[in-house]
Every structure is written in structure tokens, then in C-alpha cells.
Design goal:
The chain is of the alpha/beta class. 41% of the residues lie in helices and 19% in strands. It folds into two domains: 208 residues, 3-Layer(aba) Sandwich (Rossmann fold); 114 residues, Rossmann fold, CATH 3.40.50.920. α12 links the parallel β13 and β14. The longest helix has 19 residues. The model has no long low-confidence stretch (mean pLDDT 96).
């Protein structure tokens, strides 16, 4: 039987990252993710890994670039304004086709904002975030258990497609305590094969070059077309979601992370009142699970998007449903967290008016 332990979400991320074979962390403190570097400094010391508290988030992401270019599993974590500072480096990493893991425990914004939980970094996470034509594989956990499990998935996807991966959590998930089952055997990083791009010394092989630019005419355009083919493969193969009670639903709530937990309770409340309500939880925010939403839109008329922001996911739902269905929104920005009765009230307003 797998070991189970009561843990903060931020501590679960650390254990998941280490179990996934990561032995390099570089980061800078910012609330509400400070427990990650704090705990990581202890655990990396215990297992012989590398922990660096850098002088800035900019330094952290560039150290990550170097460690990943050397062929190692490397990660950083921060919260909203800190992730903003990392965007140039993330763009460089995407341009160099290097896999890394970035964890964003989102706080209220814009600007310095506050330290309350939010989902206001959705655009930044799913639309690239930095300069140039690129995307970041983005996973949205909704529990401490998934915070433990998703780093392994993120590293595997990042390495499969040679692309940066992002785990998008929020301050509530990071700070809450839940039982976490250590559900898989930890990976020994020494058993991981050397990646074909790794800069590990070329005594017995051809030299390798890792770079994010090429100044020769037409070369960078060709690189962009190659990456576009990669992104199309990711969109075709890696859309992940969880659907609950959607088969007969007259209204489907679309929500991720903490909001998905709130909306699960609201949907069950609605069912007891005679409203047929389902829940579609995107697990990958990019690639967005548009195929399942498109299929569900063939038989469901009403969709309700619930987020801790001003409606950043709404357009993705509209596009997935080909703008043919009624898409409603309920949001709490700037650190506000919706409650099940709030969401149920919105459901009752929508469906009560439709009957």
C-alpha cells in the first residue's frame, strides 16, 4: 500500500518534483509560494540535489535554461509578478526547444496585487506569455494529490515535445492541507537517458548547439514552421480533461483548479434541485480540451464558465463551441473565491429563465 501523508499543497509539489527525478531548483521568494523554495532547500540538501536562491526571478529562469541545456530535469517556482519577470527567459527556452518545469502559484493582480488566490494568469499561461510565436504546455491541478502527481506528467510532456511546461495552481491550493498518496515509485535521475541535445561534452560525439535564434536569412522562419508542426501534434494528442455528469446535462459548468472543486459542489446542489448540471474540468489549459467541448456542444445548450478572474477562459469556451451556444460567466477577481451557493444562484438564474 502506498504511503499517505497530510501535506500542504506547496510541499506536495516539492515531493512530486523530487519523485519525478528533478535535482535542480533555482528560484526567488514570493508569497504565496514561499513554502516551495523553503521546503525544497531542505529536501534537496537531504538527497544531494542543487538548490539555489537566486538574486531575482530573471536569474532563476536563466539558470534553469543552463541546467536543462545540460540535460538535467530542472524547475523553478514563483507567483504571478515573478512569473511575469521570467517571460523573456521562458521565450528563450521555448526558442531553444528545451524542456523545463515552471510552477506558478497564482496570486491576485494586476500589478503587485495581493497574496490571495486567483486565476488571473490564464492568458499569460495559455497564450505564450513572452515574445514570439510559442506555447507552453500548461497543466491545472485541483488538489494536493495532483500537485504531487503533475510534475512527473509535466516533465514527461516537456521532454517528449522539447518544450517548457507550466503547472498553474493558485494560492488556495498551495496553502491548503490534504492527504497525499505517494502513488508512484520515485525516479532515480541517474537512470534517465541523456537527451540528444544535452551539452555534456563532445569528446566522443559530434558537437551540439543549443540556441534560440539564427540570424541567417529565412532560418528563424523555418524554425517557427517546424515548431508549429510540434504544437499541432500537442494539440492533437495531449488534450486532457475530467467530465462529470455531462451526458444528460442541460447546462455544463467549465472550471479548473480551485473553481472546479467549488463548481462540483454547486453542480451536485443543482442536481438535488432538479437541474441537470454537469462539470467539464480542463486539466490541460494548453492544449485546451476543445474537442470534448465541441462534442458536448452538440447536445448541450448552456455553458457556464466560472473563474477567479474577469473571464479569461470564456473565449476558449466560445471558440470550442463554435460560438453557437450560450456561454455565461461568473467570476471573482483580485483574490475573491466563489462559493457553491453563488454558483448555484447563477445556475438557477440561467436555467430558471430558460424554462
Amino acid at each position: 500500500m502506498a504511503e499517505k501523508k497530510l501535506m500542504y499543497g506547496n510541499h506536495a509539489i516539492v515531493e512530486g518534483v523530487l519523485a519525478a527525478g528533478c535535482r535542480f531548483f533555482a528560484g526567488y521568494p514570493i508569497t504565496p509560494q514561499n513554502e516551495i523554495p523553503e521546503f525544497m532547500s531542505i529536501r534537496m540538501n537531504e538527497i544531494g540535489g542543487v538548490f539555489i536562491q537566486t538574486e531575482s526571478e530573471i536569474a532563476a529562469i536563466n539558470m534553469l535554461f543552463g541546467a536543462a541545456a545540460a540535460g538535467k530535469r530542472a524547475m523553478t517556482s514563483s507567483s504571478s509578478p515573478g512569473i511575469s519577470l521570467m517571460q523573456e527567459g521562458i521565450s528563450y527556452i521555448a526558442g531553444a526547444d528545451i524542456p523545463v518545469l515552471v510552477v506558478n502559484v497564482v496570486r491576485g493582480g494586476p500589478g503587485l496585487g495581493n497574496i490571495a488566490p486567483a486565476q488571473s494568469d490564464y492568458f499569460q499561461a495559455t497564450k505564450g506569455g513572452g515574445h514570439g510565436d510559442y506555447f507552453t504546455i500548461t497543466l491545472a491541478p485541483n488538489s494536493a494529490q495532483e500537485l504531487y502527481e503533475f510534475p512527473k506528467i509535466a516533465f514527461e510532456l516537456a521532454e517528449k515535445y522539447r518544450n517548457p511546461a507550466l503547472i498553474l495552481a493558485d494560492g488556495l491550493l498551495g496553502q491548503m492541507m490534504e492527504p497525499v498518496e505517494f502513488s508512484y515509485k520515485p525516479i532515480n535521475p541517474e537512470t534517465l537517458p541523456e537527451p540528444p541535445y544535452a551539452l555534456s561534452g563532445c569528446k566522443n560525439r559530434e558537437r551540439r548547439i543549443v540556441r534560440s535564434y539564427d540570424l541567417r536569412p529565412g532560418k528563424l522562419e523555418a524554425w517557427n514552421w517546424q515548431r508549429q508542426k510540434k504544437y499541432e501534434q500537442i494539440v492533437a494528442n495531449e488534450q486532457r480533461f475530467e467530465a462529470t455528469a455531462c451526458d444528460d446535462a442541460e447546462l455544463i459548468i467549465v472550471a479548473y483548479g480551485t473553481c472546479a472543486r467549488v463548481c462540483d459542489a454547486a453542480a451536485r446542489m443543482a442536481r438535488t434541485k432538479g437541474y441537470r448540471v454537469g462539470l467539464l474540468r480542463p486539466i490541460t489549459l494548453w492544449p485546451y480540451p476543445s474537442k470534448i467541448l465541441s462534442a458536448l456542444s452538440k447536445k448541450t445548450e448552456h455553458f457556464l464558465v466560472v473563474e477567479m478572474n474577469m473571464g479569461q477562459m470564456v473565449d476558449d469556451v466560445r471558440l470550442a463551441t463554435e460560438c453557437k451556444k450560450k456561454v455565461f460567466f461568473h467570476g471573482r477577481p483580485g483574490g475573491g473565491v466563489p462559493t457553491p451557493p453563488e454558483v448555484f444562484g447563477k445556475i438557477e438564474t440561467i436555467l430558471g429563465g430558460a424554462r
